[in-house]
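Annex B. Sample input.
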Amino acid sequence: MTLTFETPSSNKAELESGPAFTPRFDDKGLITAVVTDARDGELLMVAHMNAEALALTIETGVAHYYSRSRKSLWKKGESSGNLQTVKEIRTDCDQDAIWLKVSVAGHDATCHTGRRSCFYRTVGVEQGRATVTITDDHQHFDPNKVYDKN
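Annex B, continued. Sample output.
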């Protein structure tokens, strides 16, 4: 069975309060997905989903995304072993963003750098210039050993 989505309603009240899940994909066919750890709420990553990725995520309970750079479907954790099991899916008021609460298998890390979260740097200002500082340098796995660099 392939899950399909209805066309979003133009009726604001129906969109915001009605029972139909009608995701509003952008002009490239994508919707933003915010991903947090179901256990402690830490922000793990932000990605995009097309209709196929969203349907697979709902049907299988494992997070799938659409890679804009590779222009292909991507099952998160397929190569690293850090699969994301979806515990809850929420949508925002106008259904143009998705929030996934997940548990992460394997090394309990989401970022391809080996860190738990993709948000491991803090933005600051130094001598009038914007800078980033690594605030979480703990690597749960060595990406060079986990990912095939061919």
